[in-house]
């Protein structure tokens, strides 16, 4: 099977749970064949805060290879710093730039 | 013209009407050249219930070739069974898996 | 670098600000290498009205090459006419048709 690449776009903190479920279903269905990345921007970055409801889950999913990226613009605009997020979360210059790059690499886009 | 493939992602019951309109516009614009598929997950599966506001429309659109798929996880989680949906609706292991597969096949993704 | 093509889908008037920010971040990150297009349908067309909050910004972004398209169905259904929008905004037969065409041309899809 061709390698599966999926990008899940996290745009609102309230979508955090749906996004995590999406990622888990992708892992369950494709196992080692999938590369999954969550890109959060706008209000969505809050769902990945260390102190947020998914802090632990982010770390656990990153350990099995899931990538997490937050938009630097959105993070700054809301007064957060790099230290507010688990170290496994990458800070990218812009969420949209990351999304465009990944889609160009063949990632399928999913917006819960 | 190259065959057109479009996947419309139905994520909330309240988006049911917009999704149906999207499908109708695709049929109107591309006619026989389009393969359209609606993938519902989360709360969105409710929009496809037999007893829901679009039960009849789902059957009519399926007759002209539109595909409908619901996420097994979401269906189960909300206590629905296969029988609650028109028989033309396919149950897929996961909505996100279906989306990723279709995008890999060249389907354009639309999220109303 | 390969030319970057990005389509931002504007579905709700309340998403106007996020969409404009997305476009600005794309320009900031990719400069002359990006072709960006905003496609508005449903309630989203209101965000592009001349008298709306982004009328001026639409004109300014169009001057640097950003494309704007509104769905004819949505525009009509809400009682608007071509004259209610800046002249730089293109009216397309359907928003979904435009999206499918652009994705087929290689545009990455972003739905804020």
Automatic annotation (TrEMBL), chains A, B, C:
Q: Which Pfam families match?
A: DsrE (PF02635)
| InterPro entries (UniProt xref) | DsrEFH-like (IPR027396), Sulphur_relay_DsrE/F-like (IPR003787)
SUPFAM superfamilies, alphabetized? DsrEFH-like (SSF75169)
Q: What is this protein called?
A: DsrE family protein
Q: What is the scientific name of the source organism?
A: Methanofollis aquaemaris
Please name the taxonomic classification of the source.
Answer: Archaea, Methanobacteriati, Methanobacteriota, Stenosarchaea group, Methanomicrobia
């Amino acid at each position: 099977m061709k390698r599966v690449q999926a990008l899940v776009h996290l745009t609102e903190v309230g979508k955090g749970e749906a996004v995590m479920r999406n990622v888990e279903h992708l892992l369950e269905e494709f196992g080692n064949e999938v590369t999954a990345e969550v890109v959060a921007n706008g209000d969505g970055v809050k769902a990945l805060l260390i102190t947020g409801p998914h802090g632990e889950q982010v770390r656990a999913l990153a350990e099995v290879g899931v990538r997490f990226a937050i938009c630097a613009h959105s993070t700054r605009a809301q007064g957060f710093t790099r230290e507010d997020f688990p170290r496994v979360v990458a800070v990218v210059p812009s969420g949209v730039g990351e999304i465009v790059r990944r889609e160009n690499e063949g990632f399928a886009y999913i917006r819960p």
